[in-house]
Amino acid sequence: MIEAVGLTKRYGTTTAVYNLSFQVRPGAVTGFLGPNGAGKSTTMRMILGLDNPTSGTVTVGGRPFRQAPNAAREVGALLDAKAVHGGRTARNHLLALAQLSGIPARRVDEVLGVVGLQDVAKRRSKGFSLGMGQRLGIAAALLGDPKVLLFDEPVNGLDPEGIHWVRNLMKALAAEGRTIFVSSHLMSEMALTADHLIVIGRGQLLADMGVRDFIAANSAGFARVRIPEDEPEQREKLSGVLAEAGAQVMPEPDGALRVMGLPLPRISDLAHGAGVRLWELSPHQASLEEAYMRMTQSAVDFRSTQDEKAGLMEQQPYGELRMPDAPAGGGWYAPPRPGENPYAGPPPAAVTASQVPKSPKSEPAPTTSEDPR
Ligand SMILES: Nc1ncnc2c1ncn2[C@@H]1O[C@H](COP(=O)(O)OP(=O)(O)OP(=O)(O)O)[C@@H](O)[C@H]1O
Predict the structure, then answer these.
(1) Structural domain boundaries, residue 235
(2) Backbone torsions φ then ψ of 25, nearest 5 degrees
(3) What ipTM was estimated for this complex?
(4) Which residue of 47, 121, 162, 199 could cross-link 206, Cys pair, CB 3.0 to 4.6 Å?
């Protein structure tokens, strides 16, 4: 297990990680999510003893990484796939790492087979594609057959087949009881790979929960209801009936209604009872990527000046990270209306990180109310 308690890292005036506490448990793939510059790599470097925390602690298997007697056999990591001696062949690169850690040479051939690089084992790695480099980095992480594995953006540069392979490899390693901690800035990828999510923004914890809980809390379902365009009074009538039955009803740009809070058969019955003809009654789901974007939008450090979201959200100070308020109804992050810019509009109401919905099984979220300045 990996455990961070109050982890903070400052580089001069930059606070890369602030008061981060979490646990990464064995037997599961834990996704470490956050936008660019959120502090994922810094956190991973601190876990691996490559950077010292300014304050707080992080342990692997109950002790700091540097105190592990044979670290390479306990923890494997892929941080930067390009950090290889390009003049060495793939096999020699792995052989050198194996010799440093007392790992037998036959294990090198095993891991080359696992990552599918056996045919290019005698080629110099400087000629490798990004994807081959990632596979070599994963092979290096697996060398010591470690119980704990850290992967920083492992699918970067991989083609769909490679992404699929990494996804299955992570799941297989977790199924063997290992602790798998994998960073990404892509919610869509993590939704398919991870069992548990730790989401950070500007170095602070935004969410620590199971993927299923995250999906349930964020993928608000809704129905689209369309009635004949030349019957606006019927539309008004239906809106009133649905609202009276407890639904949240919002108009859509094309004249349809977005209805949240009632199942489709009930909507159909209410329309029938009110004598309103329906042209469309369809179920919809807000995308998880959209929920993640909404969660992290105020925590994005770097944006292109072309980014339509740039400047729309005020930068928030550490310890006061807020998440945008949900539109009326539909759970934590109700989807924006089609065609509506979800990032425009008035500034959001304050919601502190400690109010993030929690999985019943997960630990209580640490609060980040202290202002370090
Ligand atoms: N050695 C360093 N010196 C100064 N600032 C640093 C250093 N390393 C990281 N930072 C800063 O700390 C913050 C977090 O960076 P980090 O690389 O950990 O984020 P990240 O979530 O891994 O981002 P990305 O997805 O872009 O890799 C950024 O503002 C970054 O510029």
Answers:
(1) 220-284
(2) -95, 155
(3) 0.96
(4) 199
For 329, what's the count of Cα atoms within 13 Å in the CB-facing half-sphere? 15
Atom 23 of ligand 1, nearest CA residue: 37
pTM for this predicted structure: 0.70
* Pair 96, 102: CB distance under 8 Å: no
Q: Which residue has the tokens 């992404």?
A: 163
Interval between CA 22 and ligand 1 midpoint (Å): 19
Query: What DSSP state is assigned to residue 119?
Result: G
DSSP labels, 30-41: EEEE--TTSSHH
Residue ending a domain, among 240, 260, 284, is 284
Query: At 109, which CATH number?
Result: 3.40.50.300
Confirm whether 59 is domain-assigned: yes
- Pocket of ligand 1, beta carbon within 6 A: 11, 14, 16, 34, 36-42, 185, 301
As given in the structure block, the two tokens for residue 164 are 């699929």
Instruction: Dump pLDDT digits (tens) for 199-219.
Output: 998 899 989 999 888 877 776
Beta carbons of 214 and 207 less than 8 angstroms apart: yes
